[in-house]
Every structure is written in C-alpha cells, then in structure tokens.
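Sample log: 6-phospho-beta-glucosidase.
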Amino acid sequence: MTTSSFPDKFLWGGATAANQIEGAYDEGGKGLSIQDVMPRGITTAPSDAPTDDNLKLGAIDFYNRYIDDIALFAEMGFTVFRFSIAWSRIFPMGDEDKPNEEGLAFYDRLLDELEKHGIEPLVTISHYETPLHLARTYDGWSSRELIGFYERYCRTLFERYGARVKYWLTFNEINSVLHEPFMSGGIATPKTELTQQNLYQAIHHELVASARVTRLARDIMPGALVGCMILALPAYPLTPDPADVVAAMKTQHDSYAFGDIHCRGEYPGYLLRYFRDHGIELDITDQDRDDLRNTVDFVSFSYYMSMCETADTSARVTGAGNIFGGVANPTLQASEWGWQIDPQGLRVVMNDYWDRWQKPLFIVENGLGAKDVLVEIDGVPSVEDDYRIDYLNQHLVQVGEALADGVDVLGYTTWGCIDLVSASTAQMSKRYGFVYVDRDDDGSGSLERYRKKSFFWYRNVISSNGASLS
C-alpha cells in the first residue's frame, strides 16, 4: 500500500445507532420503539413494556451529552459521523399525520454541532428501531401499509434536513430481516411462526419503500446521495471440491440479492429460481416493479467476519466462527464473541462489490467488540487496547489495497466509535469504541468518557490520511 492509496477527500469517522447511544426513551415526545422492549437484545423474546434492566433505555445518554461527544469526535479529526434518526422521535406511533417537533429540533441541534466542527453527517433513516406501535398494530414490515408511513417519515426528514445532509442510507443491513425479523423488520409474529414467504414479502415491502424514497430524495434534494446498506459476509468454499464452491456461491447470493435489487432495479434470476424452488410467490405489483428501477447512488456495508461453506453436512458443526451460519474457517482466529477475524476478506468484498455493481462503496461498519479494562496511565483513566488498534490497522491496510486495486470508496466509519449498548446482547461489556464510557452491564457507572489508546492512534491515522498505517 502506498500513501497515495487514500484519496484527499476520503471520509474518516465513526458510526452509531440512535437506540444504542441516545437513551432518553421517554423524553422530547418520543414514542416507544421495538428496542425499548428488548432488554436482552435478540437473545430473548420481547417484553410487554420497557423494563428497568434494559440498558438501551438509558444507553450512554448521548441525547443529553451529544455536544461533548461530538467534540471528542472532532478531536480525533472525524470528517464524517454516521448516526441514525429514531423514527419514533419524529413520529412517536409511526402512523400519525404530523411529526413531533421536539424530535425534529433535537436532530437540528445535533446537525448544528456537526457543522460547527466541519463533520459531514451520514444519516441512517431506519436502523433497527421501528416504532413499537407499527410492530404491534401492523406486524411491522409484513404490512404493505408501512411503505406509506415510511415515505411520510422520509419526506419529513428530507424537507427538514435536506440542505444539511448529503449522504443518506435507507435501511440498516436490510438482508438481516431473514435472521432477526423483529429487530430488523419490526415483525411481531414470533420467528418460529414465520415462513420464508412471510420474510421475503416483508423485505420486498422494504425494498419498494427504499426505492420510492430514493426517487423522493432526488426530487427534494437534487445534490444528495442515497445508498443501500447490506451486511457483507463473504463465503469461501471449505475445500476445492466443486460442490463446496457451489454451496459457497448459494450462500453468497444471500448478500448479493439485496445489493443487486438496489443497484440493478430488479430481482436477479438466482433469487427468482430460489422462489420457484421453495414455493414462494410474492405479491409484486406493476407499480412495485416500476418503483424498484430507482436505483441507489452508492453501496454501503458492514464487515466484521467471513465464513466457509461446504456441501458436506457432517462438517456443519458449531464453532468459533459459526455465528452467522456456514462453518468455521480453520485458518482464522476468532474474537471473544466468536467472530472470525479476516482483514483480507474486506479487500475481497470491496473488489467483489465494485466489480459487480460499479457504484461507489462506503464502509460504514467495521470494528472489534472486546472486554476493555479501564486502567490509570500517568494518573489518567484509559484503556490499553492494542488488540483493537491491531484489528483496525489490519483492516484499513486492506482498504488501502482495495483502493490501489481501483475500487471507488467514499469513506470508512468504524462501528461504535464511542462505547455503546450492543444490539445483539444489550451489553455494555462488548465494547467497540475509541472512547470508554463508564457504564456496566448492570446499569451502574458514572457515564464519564475516557480516551482509549486507540483514540490517539485513530487521530494519527486520520491526520495522515492513512499514511501512518503499517
């Protein structure tokens, strides 16, 4: 990698989600979201109401501390900050005719701070926080009615913030509905009762909504760029056996499908075959087909790990890298949470996506969750997180390699740039940030912020535009 691999206008920053940082679930006129009844993340069934042991209810109190937190991001040199808008702050129930002004005003103030520090906002419109009323009354994205509610929500955002926000993402990890229908799609029907027909129909509604608001964004904000966001999970054949190669190809299609539809404007042949083979018949109207032709301007994605695939069913055993399916890669190590660490996989994904879609890429999630230990260094609380520095350094070197390969990349935002509550486990102990937040899994702690060793490392990476990477 050469120092010229990262272009001068490359965007450096971090990423968060409203439900994992804001807290203040009952302030400013906010309604309940699905996250407010998920005290243990995806590990347990939703509760009937918010409970005292749900860390997300208070999260890290970004709602009241955003000024200081954004100042910390500016100190690192961020040129972009990815955050999500909580749908239920703007439309508390989700289906009202008029928005909540207090919620809109909060994000006005947030944008004020970003502008003050010269940080570009990257806004995720829907990041795993469907209004609870829409989940319970309409069964979330199972209902076609949500398309209209989402359009109204987006129109409100575009008209209010359109002159201030250039980069928009419609749905976070849209392909995750297949795995976590309540968290990803607000689908209240228990997972065990849902068929593939149900899940793909819900995703179809999201895809149509995404395409419609992409067109709406161009009407209201001609200079804005709208992207999709997918969970990137490269699948390697476990052996050179052609049967394993085909198994990996089929798994890879799970990620490709949603990018193909967003970028090409129609369902790909391999997915239509899958529907035929499994008796899935979606309700797709002529208007839907016309809407889907409104393709995105760029592709954003999360990348944490890769996996292997095999046609040998006897090899499909659980293991350290078997979190999202597939089988563990015997050549890779895993994090404390069993996610296999594969920096070169990021280069593979970037080349693959660029060659496939020829649209600019944006890496909007990448990071290492770990159990950090707060210590005193020269009398100042900090964390010696060399393991995080090593992880991020290795991945960013591969971003540089992909850039040198000719891949067009807009920027890079690390996931959880400040410690936040885990979406999957609702823990604070699974930490990703450059900034340590004094809060524990039991909810105790002062919420004070402390700079980790990685804070200063990332500041150096940004100031050198990647030249400091090795």
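Observation: The domain at 11-463 is CATH 3.20.20.80 (TIM Barrel).
Observation: The longest strand covers residues 225-232.
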